[in-house]
Amino acid sequence: MNDAKNFPDKVPESVKVLLIEDNPGDARLIREMLRDIKNSVFEIEHCDRLEGALSRLLLKGIDVVLTDLNLPDSEGIETFRRIYAKAPKLPIVVLTGFSDETMGIQTVQEGAQDYLIKQDVSSVLLARTIRYAIERNFAKLASEELVGTITHELRAPLTVIKEVISQVLEGLFGEINEQQRRIFLMSMESVARMARLINNLLDVYKMEGSKAELRKEKTDLGALIKEVVEGLTPKLWEKSLEINMSFPPLAVELSLDREKMVQAMTNLISNAIKFTEKGRIEITIAGQGGAGVEVTVSDTGIGIPSEELPKVFGKFEQLSNAAKVKEKGSGLGLYITKRIIELHGGRIWVESEFGKGTKFHFTIQK
Ligand SMILES: Nc1ncnc2c1ncn2[C@@H]1O[C@H](COP(=O)(O)OP(=O)(O)OP(=O)(O)O)[C@@H](O)[C@H]1O
Ligand SMILES: [Mg+2]
After folding, report:
1. For residue 113, what is the domain's CATH number?
2. Which ligand has the shortest distance to the CA of 296?
């Protein structure tokens, strides 16, 4: 077991707060509030620009970040995103005004531990929020680490089971009858499903927070898509589905993490096959200019009810239409796909007509 942890065990005795705030009055107020607490354990380092704070975060020693969102060199949610990208393992508490409370909520949805409305802050509330944020962050890191370890450890025994079942099916341990073959084939299907789930969980783990890294190289996107389609040909034949690809005449060269992009395309095209009983799947790449490209995967399948569309990219989200198909999934494919596209700086969205078909679009910058 790999038990090398990369975060401390408990809340530190003294807490080093990185305060990012350009308004000198607000910064002084926060400083005074934290000093006023009895037996205060808080120590403040102050930056009034985001750039300075990001450089400071490269060095060790900060326990929690307390940040305003509107700074001279960064505005709104982008401020939070840039801090989180630089220090995904640190708890971040965001300071907002009355008027932009919704932005505070959005930062929490994207990974901030908490937000405080400046006009409401008192010294007790501030101290409690910071301590709470640190505790919750430890709990979050510990559970992520646990999922990573468990899924990793589950892979090896599963490979052994798979190997043994194939040997039985090949007759290596003597002849088997039809009934036995059916039962072993069924077990093999369950093992394959479990392997898919474990691999997806591991991918989710790898792609969250600090572990997400891209290894980009110059890649011909059209050729990559053709390779993915080729790998899925048996599934297309099984259902007698037609597939059309329409790409620009010249190769579309982009800087991509090849392995991750293969995974994103595999997820989208496998979904199109899985949720389509008859008709066609179409893949297009549009645009080639400076602005990047838009890829579309469309199918003539069962479609998605409009009220469920906002949920498609959620974690473990399988919609009501998933009950209609034979192959059981985990509801992680599109969550992972969205993460991959966003890591590449792109955007993904869906259009669908229930009963008629679905179109997934994503953009990738040059
Ligand atoms: N092309 C599509 N047509 C209709 N519904 C779709 C399509 N793609 C995705 N969905 C719906 O969105 C849900 C989420 O898709 P996602 O790929 O995340 O999960 P999954 O395919 O069920 O499982 P997994 O990909 O983890 O094996 C699906 O369960 C299905 O309800
Ligand atoms: Mg899927």
Report:
1. 3.40.50.2300
2. 1
User: How would you classify the pairing of strands 280-286 and 253-257?
Assistant: unpaired
Based on the number of CB atoms within 10 Å of its own CB, is 185 exposed (0-12), middle (13-18) or buried (19 or more)? Answer: exposed
Which residue CA neighbors atom 19 of ligand 1 most closely?
331
Domain shared by 115 and 167, yes or no: no
Alpha carbon 290 to chain centroid distance? 27
Same-domain pairing of 56 and 196 = no
- Dump pLDDT digits (tens) for 49-103: 999 999 999 998 999 999 999 999 999 999 999 999 889 889 999 999 888 889 9
pTM: 0.72
Q: Are residues 129 and 167 in the same domain?
A: no
If asked whether residues 308 and 176 sit together in one domain, one would say no
Q: Name the residue of 299, 318, 349 to mutate for ligand 1: max ligand atoms within 8 A of Cβ.
A: 318
- What whole-number distance in Å separates Cα of residue 284 and Cα of residue 84? 34
Q: Which of 196, 197, 319, 334 to mutate to test the pocket of ligand 1 (most atoms within 8 A of CB)?
A: 334
Beta carbon of 276 within 6 Å of any ligand 1 atom? no
In sequence order, what are the beta bridge partners of 294? Answer: 286, 363
CA of 245 to the centre of ligand 2 (A): 20
As for how many domains the chain has, the answer is 3
